[in-house]
UniProtKB/TrEMBL annotation:
It catalyses: butanoyl-CoA + 2-oxoglutarate + O2 = 2-hydroxybutanoyl-CoA + succinate + CO2; hexadecanoyl-CoA + 2-oxoglutarate + O2 = 2-hydroxyhexadecanoyl-CoA + succinate + CO2; octadecanoyl-CoA + 2-oxoglutarate + O2 = 2-hydroxyoctadecanoyl-CoA + succinate + CO2; 3-methylbutanoyl-CoA + 2-oxoglutarate + O2 = 2-hydroxy-3-methylbutanoyl-CoA + succinate + CO2. Pfam families: PhyH (PF05721). Its EC number is 1.14.11.18. SUPFAM superfamilies: Clavaminate synthase-like (SSF51197). This is Phytanoyl-CoA dioxygenase, peroxisomal. InterPro entries: PhyH, Phytyl_CoA_dOase-like. One of its GO terms (molecular function) is metal ion binding.
Length: 333
C-alpha cells in the first residue's frame, strides 16, 4: 500500500468512528467537534495536516498554526513597510490606504498615516511572504500543488480615533473575488506582533464557510467606513464567535466564505498583520453581473480606470494583473 493510500485509510478510520471519539481542537481555541461523519470537501491530503487538523478545518473553516513565520522574517517585513511609509521606495501597483478618521489630518510620512498596504506583489521583500515554503506547504493542503498568489495586504490597524473606524465589518472575502471554486481558495494571515482583543484581533464565525455568499454593502456607521470595507448585510448576530488572539509569527488559514471581521484597536499602538489570498491555478473567472458581487465589481472598475487611466478595464483584468504564480504551473488564472 502506498504512503498516501495508507494515510487515507487511516483518516477514513477516524471518520468511521463514533463522533465522540474524534478530537478536533488543534488550536488553542475551544470549538465544536463534529457531530456526524464528515466528507472531506475543504482540504486535500498532501501528507502535512493531521486527520484532526483536517476535521477541524472542515467543521470550522479556519486553522491556526503557531510560530509559522520567523521573527527574522517579520522584522524584515516591518522594515520594508516603514521604508514604504517614508516614501523611500516607489512600488508599482501598490495601494496605500489611510483610515477614514485620519484621512484629512496633516500628512505625516511614517506609519501613523497608513492603515493598509494593498497589492504589494511588485515589492520583492514583502512578496517574499507569499512564497515562504512553510506557508506554501500549508496552502497546498487547501488549494493543491499549483498555487497563485492573488491578493496581498499588510494591515496596520491604527489606534481608534474615537469614531470606531478602526473596526472591520463582518464580511466574506469571496465577495471580492470573481474566480471559483471557493473551496480551492484560502487566506494565510500572519500576526506581526501580539494580536488580542484590545488591539482588534480577527473575529470569526466558525462553520459559516459551509454557507453561501451573502449580499454585502457599506455598513451605516456613524463615524464612517473605510474604502472597500463592505460588510455582510444579513447574518445571525447570535452565531457563536471566536476571537483569534495570536502571537507574532502565528498564522491562521481560512476559507473565503468564512464570515469574519475585527474589532477596534483600543490601544495606543498599531496592530500589524500581513496576508495573502491564494487560489488553485486551475480556478476560473466568472461573470458577476446580476449577482450580489456587482456592487464591488463597479467600485473596483472605477478605481482601476482612475488609477491606470485606461477605459475598458474589467473586474477580471484587475485580478489577472495582480495574480502571481508562486508554485507549480499557471493554468487558468
Amino acid at each position: 500500500m502506498s504512503r498516501s493510500a495508507g494515510r487515507l485509510k487511516h483518516l477514513m478510520g477516524h471518520l468511521d468512528r463514533p463522533p465522540a471519539t474524534i478530537r478536533a481542537s488543534p488550536t488553542s481555541v475551544g470549538l465544536s467537534t463534529p457531530t456526524q461523519p464528515l466528507k472531506l470537501r475543504y482540504s486535500l491530503d498532501n501528507n502535512l495536516l493531521s486527520p484532526e487538523q483536517r476535521l477541524f478545518y472542515e467543521e470550522n473553516g479556519f486553522l491556526l498554526i503557531k510560530n509559522l513565520v520567523s521573527p527574522e522574517d517579520i522584522d524584515k517585513f516591518r522594515q520594508e513597510f516603514e521604508r514604504i511609509c517614508r516614501r523611500e521606495v516607489d512600488i508599482p501597483g501598490l495601494i496605500v490606504m489611510r483610515d477614514v478618521a485620519i484621512a484629512k489630518s496633516e500628512f505625516v510620512p511614517d506609519q501613523r498615516a497608513v492603515s493598509k498596504l494593498q497589492d504589494f506583489q511588485e515589492d520583492p521583500e514583502l512578496f517574499r511572504f507569499c512564497a515562504l515554503p512553510q506557508i506554501l506547504k500549508y496552502v497546498e493542503s487547501f488549494v493543491g500543488p499549483n498555487i497563485m498568489a492573488m491578493h496581498t495586504m499588510l494591515i496596520n490597524k491604527p489606534p481608534d480615533a474615537g469614531k470606531k473606524t478602526s473596526r472591520h465589518p463582518m464580511h466574506q472575502d469571496l465577495h471580492y473575488f470573481p474566480f471559483r471554486p471557493a473551496d480551492r481558495i484560502v487566506c494565510a494571515w500572519t500576526a506581526m506582533e501580539t494580536v488580542n482583543r484590545q488591539n482588534g484581533c480577527l473575529v470569526v464565525l466558525p462553520g459559516t464557510h459551509t454557507g453561501t455568499l451573502k449580499e454585502h454593502e457599506y455598513p451605516e456607521w456613524e463615524g464612517g467606513v473605510n474604502k472597500m470595507y463592505h460588510g455582510v448585510r444579513d447574518y445571525n448576530p447570535d452565531h457563536p464567535r471566536v476571537h483569534l488572539e495570536m502571537e507574532r509569527g502565528d498564522t491562521v488559514f481560512f476559507h473565503p466564505l468564512l464570515i469574519h471581521g475585527s474589532g477596534m484597536n483600543q490601544t495606543q499602538g498599531f496592530r500589524k498583520a500581513i496576508s495573502c489570498h491564494y487560489a488553485a491555478a486551475d480556478c476560473y473567472y466568472i461573470d458577476v453581473k446580476g449577482t450580489t458581487q456587482e456592487n464591488i465589481e463597479q467600485e473596483v472598475n472605477e478605481i482601476a480606470q482612475k488609477k491606470f487611466r485606461v477605459d475598458g478595464v474589467t473586474f477580471q483584468d484587475t485580478w489577472a494583473f495582480r495574480g502571481r504564480l508562486v508554485q507549480g504551473n499557471r493554468i487558468s488564472l
